[in-house]
Amino acid sequence: MTTTGRFTLPGEENFAEKTKELAKLWGADAIRNSDGTRLDQELLNLGMKVYSAYFPTRAHNEWISKHMDETPQVYLMSERVLAHEDQVQIPLMDRYFDQQLRPNRDADPHRYWEVIDRTAGRVLDQSEWSLDPDQDLVRVTGATSMHEYTASFLAYIIWDPVEMYNHLTNDWGDKEHEIPLDIYHPATRKFVMDAYWQWLDENPATDVVRFTTFFYQFTLIFDQLHREKLVDWFGYACTVSPQALDDFETRYGYRLRPEDFINKGSYNSSFCIPGRAQRDWIDFLSDFVRENVKTMVDMTHQAGKEAMMFLGDQWIGTEPYKPGFEKLGLDAVVGSVGDGTTLRMISDIPGVRYTEGRFLPYFFPDTFHEGNDPSIEGLDNWRKARRAILRSPISRMGYGGYPSLAAKFPKFVQTVARIADEFRDLHDRIKGRAAQGQLNVAVLNSWGAMRSWMAYTVAHALPNKQTYSYYGVLEALSGMRVNVRFISFDDILAHGVDHDLDVIITGGPADTAFSGGGVWKNPALLETLRSWVDGGGALVGIGQPTALEREGRFFQLADVFGVDQERFHTLSVDKYFPKVTEKHFITADLPEDGKADFGEPVVNTYPINGDVTLLRADQGQVQLAVNQYGIGRGVYLSGLPYSAVNARLLERILFYASGQQDRYGDWSCTNPHCEVAYFPQEGVYCVVNNTDQPQETSVRQADGQVRDIVLEPSAMVWQQA
């Protein structure tokens, strides 16, 4: 039987009758306009709550086209140009899309730009280069032959990157390009606020303003072939302007260089270890953004409407996990749910009344086309998200895009109906409470709480080949029966280890924000963590944890993990591998052949002595090892791509490392493809099948009682505890 509520339906123009059918079938109690469309009056009259997307800094071409020097700007690095003589020409826009970007020829280039000899690492004096604004060329004199040169320059963003993506994806043809606005400029800021007051007055039917989002786009730059050239969902590259840079200097007492944004071409991705300049700019920019977000939220409330923020598009500077977010007064946050990790990224946000997830697939033609079955992606997305919802519930769900596309796929329509009913049933049973966690686990890196559930990825829910082995750890944790928090190295140095923590997980590629890099030079950090593990704590290192070439060690806590990595300096020193322990608590649920997927290899890892318990050591390197350290334990794991088997492996690691393996059986499944979530306040538990195949499992309750359960594909079964 179809239930109703907690579901937001996307709508579009000239599709009212079928939309009403979908609303009834899916139990929708709210409707929102899709990007680039309006809701017909017939839909507004249905009695559902009305969400209206609002874009503060786009779709105002009538203003910004007359003030093109007040569009957002970005620091870009040119392609590297090799000098063959003492004269070099650097074309600024080579391999950039000229419909998206235009060099800033208005501000003094010698004040705001840099030209760098990348071979020598030398910033050229202003007298050594000049700008040819007619051809957008930088001309270098006195160059050194066979040296590479780059120009770091400011560029206006003249086509909103998200609208541009939607435009190209949906083939919107001659539709006018939407030009973005930068509210850092007082005149444009006043225009944006005045335009919003007018919009509020003209849209009395709107109940919820869905800000999509606010002011500054994450880094999204395209090349000359319209392909994504630079994507960083956490990037602040598109937030600069000459005035903001000058104001920063006044406030902080030092001037930022272009290189502080470009960083040799990395553009300060979240993988880069954040330095003072990057952290100060994030603080500076987010202070400005939040002040103006608060203004718009207050305006919304004065108009009798709710204010909802979409965690995407122009979200940069809002920083929902940075202290003070709750002061903005937002009613809700909605975000795209790609998997369990991104679900938690939304659901764990503090300081709002409710959270909402926009599930996949998006109703766009790249998925909804002849020959494809969108229901497969829909159920896969739901199964991944459901694990996380049980651990940290969202209040509402919905979809995005164009329902006219979805309606052409009856199987998908029925799949969504099933998912929506299951979501409402789940929420009614647990009353918004999270399942019980049995361990307290912290993820340790340079970013800490500010990047909760945001580690190891470049774009939203899209890890790449080099990082999926780490991202899988977060995905496993997102639906695991543990309580997760994110802490930084600075937190440890300032406050020590929280007394209630059972396990700390750290690691990532060497020389990144996640592994830590130079922070491991600090003896106080090493002393604190060693003392904690020695006294009974548990430290799990993944990939290249605590990696820094120093004092004959690469893993600075190799003594805790029992494992180090050969860096070709000690090849003359023999390494002896103890015999692999075939049967162990940690590996008990691996397939019969004992094989496990550890992802991208971390080559030449080895046990530092014969006391280490090796659990997997293939092809002359360690994949999994346990080390007793005082009365605590260290565990080394080379990587963990997400799978049901690997999630079970990590769960067993956490219980064993913390010395709580005797508690592991409580509320556990014998089948790794199934999981249990226990809700003591409601006196119930549920068992979920995380696959599209039938599964059987036995469940052990805390009192020792065992129940055998059969689950249909993707099923969720509730039991009284």
From TrEMBL:
Q: Which UniProt keywords apply?
A: Glycosyltransferase, Transferase
Instruction: Identify the domain of life.
Output: Bacteria
Per the UniProt entry, the Enzyme Commission number(s) are 2.4.1.211
Q: Does the keyword Cell wall biogenesis/degradation apply?
A: no
The UniProt record lists the Lacto-N-biose phosphorylase central domain at 440-661
Gene Ontology biological-process entries: carbohydrate metabolic process
- InterPro entries tied to this protein: Class_I_gatase-like, Glyco_hydro_b, Ig-like_fold, Lact_bio_phlase-like_N, Lacto-N-biose_phosphorylase, LBP_C, LBP_M
Any one GO molecular function term: 1,3-beta-galactosyl-N-acetylhexosamine phosphorylase activity
Location of the Lacto-N-biose phosphorylase-like N-terminal TIM barrel domain: 5-435
Does Glycosyltransferase count among this protein's keywords?
Answer: yes
Q: Which Gene3D superfamilies does the record cross-reference, listed alphabetically?
A: 3.40.50.880, Glycosidases, Golgi alpha-mannosidase II, Immunoglobulins
- Per the database entry, which stretches of residues form a coiled coil? none
Domain (Lacto-N-biose phosphorylase C-terminal): residue spans on this chain: 667-718
Broad class of enzyme this protein falls into:
transferase
Protein name (record): 1,3-beta-galactosyl-N-acetylhexosamine phosphorylase
Organism of provenance: Bifidobacterium apousia
The gene name on file is: gnpA
